[in-house]
C-alpha cells in the first residue's frame, strides 16, 4: 500500500496548517486551551508571485519554498511538523463497501484491488490512502471505506516544499475536507449544531470559487467555478495601467480612484452574486434537494463591502461570512481587530491546523 502521509488520517502535536493557494501561503497554529478548548497561537500569510501556483499545480518550486520560509519566520512558530492540503481536483475519492472484520493488511489488499477500478493511472504512479468510515448502512456485515488517491508527483511536490523549507509534512489533507472540518467546528457552536440543515459554503479564491453543500456534516455536492478575485485585480490593471502587484495591494487597501466603486467594484460584486445564484440553481437542478438553509462565504473576497448583503438579497438565503476562529481563545500576540479582517481567508489553513486534535 502506498501511503499518502495520512491523507485522511490524524496529525500529531505540535502541528501547523499551511495552505498553499494560487495567491499566497497561509499558516495557522492552534494549541489546546483548557478543557476541550482551542487557542489560536499564531497565523500569518505571504503572497506568491503570479504563476508560482496555477490550478493547484506547483509551477515554480523556488518561489513557493521562499514564501513558506518567510511565512514560517513571520509567524514566529517553532513547530516543524506541518499539515498540507491538496486541491480537490488533484485527488480522487471514492466510498467503497468492504467486508467487516478484515485485518489491516487484508484491508490494504482489498483497497488496492478496488482502487484499480476507479483510478485512471497505474497504481505505482499514485499515492493511495484509505479511512474506515464505519458500518455500512443497512448491511451489518460490511463497512464503508473512503478511498483517496492522487498522482504521486503532486504529493511529492508538496512534501518537497516542506522539506526544502526545513519542515516535515506529517499530514496531507484535501483542501475541501480541511475547510469542511473548520466549518463543522464553527457550526457545532450553534445551539442545534445545524442539525438537518442544508448548508452551502462558497470559498471565493483568486482564480476559482469552490462550492460545497453539506447536510449533517456530510458533503452532498461539490463543484468549482472559474470565478475569483483575480477578475477584479485584472480590471484594475486595465483601467488604471497599474502593475499586477500594485493593483492587488491597492484592491485590498481601497486606495483607488473615485470611479473605482461604481465602474469596477459594483460590476464585480454583481458578477459574484450572479455566480453564487447560478451555482445554487445548478445544485437544485442536479440533485434531489430543493432548499438551502444557510449560506456561508469564505476566502479572500468574502469581506468585500457589499458582497454579503448582495448575495443574501439575490439568493433569499440566510447568509454569513464564516470565521474559522470563532469560539477560540486568542494568544496575546494575535490582534483581534486584524483577525476579523483576515479570518475568512484562513478557512483551509485552520482546518489543516485542526488535524492536531484528530
From TrEMBL:
Domain SHS2: start-end pairs: 15-183
Q: Which SMART domains match?
A: FtsA
**What are its GO biological-process terms?**
cell division
**Origin: domain of life:** Bacteria
Which Pfam families does the record associate with it?
Answer: PilM_2
Coiled-coil annotation reads: none
Q: List the protein's name.
A: Pilus assembly protein PilM
What is the organism field in this record?
Rugamonas brunnea
